[in-house]
Amino acid sequence: MYQQHSIIGLERTSWCRWCALVTALLIAAPVIAREQIVLQKSGSDPQARGEDATLKQASPNSNNVGNTLTVSGVSGANQNAILEFDLSRIPNVGVKAATLTLNVVTAPSASVTYGAYPVSDFWQANAATWNTRVATTIWTTPGGDASTTATGTATVKTTSTTAAFPVTGDVQNWYNGNANYGWLIKDQSAPDTSTTVFGSKEASNATSPELTVQFVQNVTGLTATPGNASVTLNWTIPALIGSPVGTETYTGVVILRRASSPVDKSSYPTDTKVPTLCSTLGTGTVVFVDATGKQTFTDNSADTCGAPANGTTYFYKVFLRDSSNYYSYQPITNGSTYTEEISATPAATLAAQQNTQWIAATFATDLASPSLIPGSVAAMGSQTDLLFFINAVSGMREFVPISLGGSIASRSPVIDAASSSTGQDIDYVTDQDGLIYAVNTDSGVIDWVINPITTGTLSLQGGPAVQLESVAGGSNDVVFFGTRNTTTTTANQIFALNGNTGANLSWSPLTGPIMVTNNSTAQNLDIINSTPLVDYVHNVIWVTSRSACGTAQPSLWQINPTTGATEAIANLGDIDASPTLSFSSDVLFVGTVGDSIVGTTCTAGNSTIYAIHPTTGATIASYVSTDGPIVSYPVVLGSAPPYMVIFSGSTAVHLLTIDTSRPTPAFAQVWSTTIASPSAPISYTGSSYVYVGSSDGTIHELLLTTGADIKDEITNIGSTKGTVGDPSIDEVMSRIYVTTTDQRAYAFVIPF
Amino acid sequence: MFRLTHSAIRPYRNSIFLAAVVLFAALQFSGCQMTSADGGTPPPAAPSATFSFCYKEAPSCDNETSFSATATRDLEVKVSWQNVPAGSHVQTLEILLPGGNLYQQTQMTFGVQQGFDQPMVAIQTLPVAGTWIQQRHLLGQWTARVSLDGQLIATQTVELTP
Q1: Number of domains in chain B
Q2: B97 touches chain A (CB under 8 A)
Q3: Partner A contacted by B116 (CB < 8 A)
Q4: Averaged over A404-431, what is the pLDDT?
């Protein structure tokens, strides 16, 4: 945070002392980082994700987006400007300085000081008013929710043409895991009679707001290749994306190494200083210091800091440096979480060697399987309100993470442009702020955001499912999701939204108790933790729910997507897992939590796996597990019966078979393989392997035929070891992607 | 997922405000007597916060320190604030996993009126039933950490058991 120096304080100081101080500071301060960019709407930068508006106290419910931004301290008629920049041009950088500049259109009648306050809640320009921030959601504080302390201030005089606010701390925080909701510009001495009009994003490009950022880029193309007691790193020193500051150039890198766990966020070289080779910086050892532009380093027996040992996994963090020794990280107190890193495990044999394809920071826990446009983009949420789009090839951010309103605790489906009724690559997201979003994955622009109820806030946990118009017909894609309102076991809701606009379908929402076709009794709807399933063959939506810790009310629901009619139900007991269909949609598989009421307490039990008739919802067969609740969802392999059903319980991964073509089908267990707190498994028809994450910090590769645990790939097995989440397989890249509780996403080649 | 409650009853706000104004005026007149040892005005008490953790469904909060992940649908994390100066403030609540990795971080804004000196309680709901906490057995000693306007104020642990 910036501390604004008092003008009065300077006046009390003698002129000579002031000159001496400034001179000393100029001599002491080195030239700041080497690249600079000015973000401002232009022909080449539409600032597509940029937004601004004026919030007017006198018309508290009016939305004011126009050619100007007004800030006023007039009592009873205060006006605050709110604005946010699109940082997409600089997605992979360490920020060293930032200045917000507003261009004055109409100067105030007297000198006035304004503050730039970081906004603390999600808002949308087309909905923001003095009272509301998005849809029907109000600000906690009318006039905008923001920090009580201005990050930077600017004094605007009657002759001023610009107002410049130092905002370095905020921009560094945004690159370090905090959500970016932009700034609120307020009159610091309100009430007064001053009003200033600034240019807005909608104004001519020349007067729209500017954000000047000085930064050091990250290296690109970072790879690690293990050998026998060696690891070779390669990277590329990037070309400039901004203007050089002074004559500085990128000169090389500093590399930190750590065994078993990634180098933590508090470990980095100090700007302007050159670390000593083999010194320790936090949790990392400096193993490479170069200022000659090298783009490769082999860590082997020649390493004076200690050669890598076979069988140990090494994590490398690569800091690009410039000629003034500024490095690619944010120099802030709680550490820098985004600098390129990679890992490899050397070994004597090729079979035992392993390496990550990339590692990407996600800032908080996410255990949902990343969603994909295979070979292109991996998308993942974060419980710091951020949505990431990672280049599947390089692991670099496609753009700066998108700041949403709440934690994202589920998989958000990505639809490619050829399949989507929007004609865009689109990601549908639910968050714990009760909002649903459609996000363009190419630009990061939020196409729409909806609070689908007019008052109040939905509780959402499970992700949305999308019925594609390109497959199912109709006029647009439809987005389905259910609520997790724990204050009721009877009246949760199922929503269906127009995928192009976010509008509720005519029957949406269904609210429990729900009438069911051919059933005279309305059925209670408990909380929904799962993502619905679209069955294109039977044109129905399957939803699973809890059922008040018993079987007295339904937990499996079959909904007609056109009419909203509930056509079938099943009372199977609490279900948290999403259901899965066989390839030809002739059987639905679902696993229960297995809990039950003991005394007055809902008590843990063991999952039952059901094979369900896809038309009637009747049980075809069931299998009672002895391994606790099922994790996430079952996986079904085979294009025709007999099917293989793989699922994870509390301590193991299990493979069942079932031949549903027989008159009385039954599950048969094939194998169980013990894995510490396994994730959902993943495989695909034609693969010889099953992959599963674990709380031991690794991904296990199991042989499909026997369940033998033949090889593990290490994400993090050291002191910051994380639990590995549900994997996703990218068949185009032959890669597997996981997120973990160590606040990172990892990519590996498959088979291991 | 956030909500904010004031322990004060709304109709009393004006009288509290009036009392504060009177007290403020009195302090101005007697300012020379109300000084600290170094001759300045006594510094205001620093903001402080205390945590309590509750079953969301429970009719009352017993501020337990250990919860069964199986039997808990939602955990309420209540942050009780005192001595928060007037103005708009941003609370940042971090929920850390056993081992210290960040599970979730949330922000909320709240305003304190001039002269309003009643404790305020900010409540965040942490979903448990059916979440990764339950499915992946993220059990053990969790840590809640709360900051006000970027300054760390309080830390508290809570146990999640099977």
Answers
A1: 1
A2: yes
A3: no
A4: 96
Pairing mode, if any, of strands B2-6 and B120-127?
Answer: antiparallel
Instruction: Determine the Cα–Cα distance for residues A728 and A3; give it in Å rounded to an integer.
Output: 46
Contacts of B1 in chain A (CB under 8 A): 406-407, 432-433, 459
**Neighbour count for residue B140 (Cβ, 10 Å):** 12
B98 domain-assigned: yes
Domain with CATH 2.60.40.10 in chain A: 218-355
A-chain CB neighbours of B105 within 8 Å are 177, 363-364, 383-385
The answer on pLDDT for A6 being more than 80 is no
What average pLDDT does the segment A337-353 reach?
94
Chain B contact for A594 (CB, 8 A cutoff): no
Residue A497's contacts (CB-CB under 8 Å, 6 or more residues apart) are A436, A450, A452, A478, A479, A480, A503, A504, A505, A508
Please tell me the least confidently modeled range out of A7-16, A202-211, B131-140: A7-16
CB within 8 Å of B42: residues ≥ 6 apart:
B34, B35, B36
- Taking a C-beta distance cutoff of 8 angstroms, is the pair B139, B98 a contact? yes
Q: Name the band, by pLDDT with cuts 50, 70 and 90, for residue A671.
A: very high
Contact list in A for residue B131 (CB cut-off 8 A) is 409, 461, 529
Contact A562/A538 with Cβ under 8 angstroms?
no
Alpha-carbon radius of gyration of chain B: 19
**For residues A209 and A198, is the Cβ–Cβ distance under 8 A?**
yes
According to DSSP, residue A441 is labeled T
In tens, the pLDDT along A204-239 reads 788 999 999 999 999 999 999 999 999 999 999 999
A327 pLDDT higher than 90: yes
CATH of the domain spanning A218-355: 2.60.40.10
pTM score: 0.90
How many angstroms separate the first and last alpha carbons of chain B? Answer: 24
- What is the domain-level CATH number for residue B80? 2.60.40.1930
Q: 701-730 in A: which are within 8 Å (CB) of B?
A: 720-723, 725
Burial of B50 (C-beta count, 10 Å sphere; 0-12/13-18/19+): middle
Query: Which of A170, A362, A365 is best to mutate for the B interface (most B CBs within 10 A)?
Result: A365
pLDDT at A419: 97
ipTM computed for the complex: 0.90
Q: Check CB contact of B38 with chain A, cutoff 8 Å.
A: no
Domain range enclosing B116: 2-9+45-161
| Any B CB within 8 A of A520 CB | no
Amino acid at A711: K
What is the C-alpha separation between A9 and A39, in angstroms, rounded? 34
Provide CATH 2.40.128.630 ranges for chain A: 404-567
Give the architecture-level CATH label for domain A33-215: Sandwich (2.60)
Helix (H, G, I), strand (E, B) or coil at A686: coil
Its CATH architecture, for the domain A404-567, is Beta Barrel (2.40)
Three-state SS for A39-73 is ECCCCCCCCCCCEEEEEECCCCCCCECCCEEEEEC
Distance CA A94, CA A213 (A): 10
Residue B83 lies in a domain: yes
Residue B90 touches partner A, C-beta closer than 8 Å: yes
Comparing CA positions, the residue from A437, A577, A560 lying closest to residue A497 is: A437
